[in-house]
Design goal:
Layout (H helix, E strand, L loop, with lengths): L5 E5 L3 H13 L3 E5 L2 H6 L2 H4 L2 E5 L7 H10 L6 E5 L4 H10 L3 E4 L4 H18 L2
Parallel strand pairs: 1-2, 1-3, 3-4, 4-5
Protein name: Response regulator
Keywords: Phosphoprotein
GO biological process, one term: phosphorelay signal transduction system
Length: about 130
Amino acid sequence: MSVPSVISVLDDDPYVRAAINNLLKSRGYNVHTFASAHEFLASADSHGTSCVIADVQMPVTSGIDLLTQMRAQGSATPFILITAFPDESVRVRAHKAGATCFLDKPFNASDLMKCLEVALAAGDESTQ
């Protein structure tokens, strides 16, 4: 029996956090939610997460800034970035920073699950 992946969800909107949390838990994932990048980085969960799903536009530290910071520290944790304000230049920055996937809000549950499958597969490859 395999251990479920730990997914960290970061969004300053509590309703978005709850919706993603409920979806992922219903699919068998262990989910940890955070209202900010600072809250995530201050937790022990930041080192044991299998994938981060983060909002691009959060106060203080954006999802892209968090991704950049974690990559600079040597983390290969897969990132899925989500945003309510899609912009091609932000999408390009996200992919250049190393995001596995970039989704515009609102997104379909199936789109998020496809991105998560890709991200977790990429994470498995980086640990081999």
